Give the backbone structure.
Amino acid sequence: MRDVRDSKLNDLGRRNFWLIVVTTATTVAYAGFCLWKMFSSGGGQNIESVLPTNPRAVLILCFAASTLTLLFLPELGRVVTAVASMAVLYLFYYWWSLTAAIKANLNITQLPNADWLGDQFVGAYYFDILVGVAALVILILDVRVLWKTIPQRLRGEKPSLVA
């Protein structure tokens, strides 16, 4: 049986809904992936993965802050999500630059025993790159929602998510 009820969400409400869904799904998936890699015996990653030198812990914190503020403080959450998404993208750049610095200090062009991804981001998995792409998608979704609310806020109106 199909649900025929109308959702009553306007365009802004649908955009906000997808922003929340993508942010929450990314947070849960990445946290689960990192915990699985940390506790799996065959993954080659150990308890060092929770140290501050590993960017994954900071990435998870950025996504968690985005998700929680979007769910509980929607107005502030959109701003926090934009800032956190930019921070995640900067962390990926920082991760890449640290890998380049390691190669420069060792005076090598490629890290030994590293595939292409490991040569660009030391210790990275392909799921990490997927999370970087998700951060870019979250930033785009968030900016679209914020951009849609600017004219309403300038007129002194509170943006409504329902029709």
